[in-house]
Amino acid sequence: MHTPSVPNALFLVLLRTLHLLALALWLGGLVAIGALVAPTAFHAARTAPALAGHLPQQNALAGAVVGGSLRLFNLLTLTCAAVLLAANLLLLPYTSRRWTGACLAAILVLLASTLYLAFGLTPAMDLAQAQGRMADFDRMHHWYEQLSTLLQMPLLLLLTVFTALRDSPPSPHHRLNGAGSQS
Fold it and tell me: Where are the domains of the chain?
């Protein structure tokens, strides 16, 4: 692990800030869509006087809002994954390889799942919905929710822990024993 000079120290602060911002956007966006956007869209569609008694139109409107939000969120998460990956690769010489490696492993799994959601599952869901294959759409939508909540959410939380461990200074006991933070 290198000791950074002052200009490098500012660069490291920038990298860590970008890492934290991307992590916060991804985790916060996942919570916001699931806990705020989706319930609000369906509530607004169900209570709109113009759509009273028209359940298919209510579902279509709410689905369009949530689906559009998810497509935009997929782009955001791909951007976040790229920022996280780049920041961690650039931080590697200056941080604990163990925790930066753990961060990179989590980021790669997150990136793979996001690529699948954005370019595999979402287009398939759109096609099923356009063709009126709602049972297929519902099955794929359930799978999307499962990947988001049971894979991505825990990995993002784990990445938060790995980030804290990566960015924590070595303990005094660790320094006194001459142990490096490369372990």
Answer: 6-169
